[in-house]
Amino acid sequence: MEGQILPPENLTNEAIAERLTTTARKNLETGSIQKKNLIYLELNGCSGNIISLLNGQNPDFEYTLNSMVHLRYSNSLMAAEGEQAIEQLLTAMDEEYILAVEGAVALKNNGLYNIIGSWKGEPLTGLQAAKMLGEKASHILAVGACATHGGVSAAKPNPTQSVGLQEVLPDKSIIKLPGCPVHPDWFLGTLAHLLLYGEPETDNLNRPLMFYSTLIHDRCPRRPFFDRGIFAEKLSDKTCLFKLGCRGPVTRVDCPTRQWNGHVNWPIGANTPCIGCASFGFPDAMAPFISYDTTRVVKDE
Amino acid sequence: MSKRIVINPLTRISGFMEIDVMVDQNRVVDVKTKGNLFRGFEQMLIGRSPFDAVYFTQRICGICSAAHSMASSLALEDALNIEPMEQGRYLRDIIHCCEFLQNHIRHFYQYTVPDFVKIEQNTLFQSDHNDFRLPKNINDRIAKHYFDSLTFSRLAHEMLAVLGGKAPHNHGVFIGGVTTQATAEKIVHIDSILTKIIRFIDDKMIPDVYDIANFYKDYFHLGGGYGNLLTYGAFNDYKELGTLYVDPLVFTKGTVEAFDENNIQEKIDYAYFKSVNNSNEPSEEVTEPDMDKENAYSWVKAPRYNGLPFEVGPLARLILSGAYENRISAMDRTIARALETKKIAEIMKILIQQVVPDVDVQKKYDLPESAAGRGLIDTTRGGLGHWLKIQDQKISFYQIITPSTWDFSTKDDNGYRGTAEEALMGTYIENPDNPAEIGRILRSFDPCMSCATHVYRPGKQVKTIKVF
């Protein structure tokens, strides 16, 4: 192989993520890296991120479980229930672990608006769990909009006083994966990078550059319509959705090229505007999601 | 000898739930089901654009998000006086079918199977109890199907995304039907996946559920409850196709009657709410948290029909449509979920055949200054209702009653327990220290507490927990 001229390396985000997971698999197989413990915590949210993660393809969940991490705790998936489940959570804390959190931290009433279990007859709040597990974790991933900044759980008037994970762990480095929900590749690609090389390169808001570096608008297949001023007047039109409220111009993430659910489609492909679910201001700063008043002055953009 | 059993968290459900059970000589003599999460969507929706409700309400739930987009679209169509084209309904209902498939496959394998099948290969599946009865060959086959099932849930979401853009939290379902147009390529894409899913249901899911039922026959006698069944109707009332599944019906004490939405009330007698306007009507009721209310023990409200609690979901639909003999138990519920998965796939095949390519069902919609509407529809877990009012072109009122609120409601002033509470009453608990029965019975209802819960009972301001 030495000296052989290879074709240029594919530098798309997809190719990079695929290379990462392939390399991770090889290194695990050869024993040059070890499986790490993963604690997956669900807090104040809809549990949509874990469902999205189960949609992962390469790697898929079975592969992730068998070849990448020891999943030590997951409210949605683990067989144990009640205090035995919480006991497994506490036991997992004795070893090194990566912490992934989906959902916001509800501060109201001392965290009691979100109880995730009980221990010795006392409630364990999401707030307590986030602090306790976050302080000891080797790496922390905030998975989805609620965990990165409060998301829909913190939408006005924020009845639960929800905040993003960083607010209760101000001194910790947290990798942030905004999105509602997170794309399985954003999470699993980041996880693969962590296992192989440590924390990936991030932007000033702690988002991995490999997924969150470009504006949707800049890679939107409907960009030529925007440039020529051809705008949709209703959902289902095939032209630029900017005037219906599309947040592609302010949202940094790779949906246009990665797409969703087996890479088959994405919101703009469904003739609807991007609602900016991977932006830190989602949802309130991204609302209204849809407006037929195409004459209005659109702020933000 | 009395003993209290508290299970918190009840894992392998959507959301957070606590079960508080009293047993006397191993028999359940009292039950409280409690939700452990408050989000406050009905408050959050006030003042938002009515159009945004379709995408916003989906965020109530990550496993049944499309259900909320269906109900809110119907509520908006009602408020805006829009009758969707039949092609719009077909495409929207195809998306809804995809969610049923994703949801039922996931619930059966990922949430239910670990209750009955030992999955050896990972500590994640370490169980608390030891009541595993399947012979090794059957056990290992179903354990393998657990992992296979991930592929088919994922494929169901892939079909959903072909028309809906993405899942969870699709973009395609909207007023008028959907935002996408069918094309030959999309139809074939969906039909090809559906064919694979049907093979999985026939060859694996249905034999697996019957194998489990065969070795856990006692569960045909557990988890019955009141036996009142209700459906708002599912895949019904098409102009040309008529009813493919079930019309809106209720079943009480052996009698089947037409469903009348005016008979729904939502009670708060044992829930931590006070009424702002003394109304139990879903279209009017406004409540405020009241954490010090006496006798209240949960923040899940109590929907009632003609004053009675009702069971909703796959078993209710199968029985009311005449497709299942009238037996109600935890195992019947689980079997019904698998049989319904097959039924939905067949309905989806029929709907796909009706689709005409390239039909655009969208229009530019104008918001009225004021209006009211409601959308009632049977979704994966049962009847879901959204009620909304518009004032000054903004949402001024929003009410949601979810299927899991029906099934996991609190007691009411007539002394009726919630449906799932009643289903647990009298259950013999073999080992109160590691009870297998409670979780199995509750999971047979497929609890979606992300949808059902509004707030956890905070009780007194809690001191720091020393353990941590």
Describe what you observe in this structure.
Chain A is an alpha/beta fold. Chain A has twelve helices and nine strands. Chain A folds into two domains: 13-208, Rossmann fold (3-Layer(aba) Sandwich), CATH 3.40.50.700; 216-286, Cytochrome-c3 hydrogenase, C-terminal domain (Cytochrome-c3 Hydrogenase, Chain A, domain 2). Chain A has helices spanning 13-29, 48-54, 61-68, 82-92, 126-136, 145-149, 165-168, 184-197, 209-212, 216-219, 223-227, 255-258; strands at residues 36-42, 69-74, 97-102, 105-106, 115-119, 122-125, 139-143, 162-163, 174-177. In chain A, strands 2-1-3-7-9 form a five-stranded parallel β-sheet, with helices on both faces. The longest helix of chain A has 17 residues, at 13-29. Chain B has helices at 41-45, 53-56, 65-80, 86-116, 136-164, 184-215, 314-320, 330-354, 403-407, 419-424, 437-444, 449-452, and strands at 2-7, 17-24, 27-35, 173-174, 177-178, 229-231, 249-252, 255-258, 264-267, 273-275, 287-289, 302-305, 370-379, 382-391, 394-401. Chain B starts with a strand and ends in a 16-residue tail after the last helix. In chain B, helix 6 runs antiparallel to helix 8 (330-354). Chain B has a three-stranded antiparallel β-sheet with strand order 1-2-3. Chain B has a three-stranded antiparallel β-sheet with strand order 6-7-8, covered by helices on one side. In chain B, strands 13-14-15 form a three-stranded antiparallel β-sheet. Chain B has 468 residues and is α+β, with helices and mostly antiparallel strands. Chains A and B meet through helix 2, helix 3, strand 2, helix 4 and strand 5 of A and helix 4 and helix 5 of B.
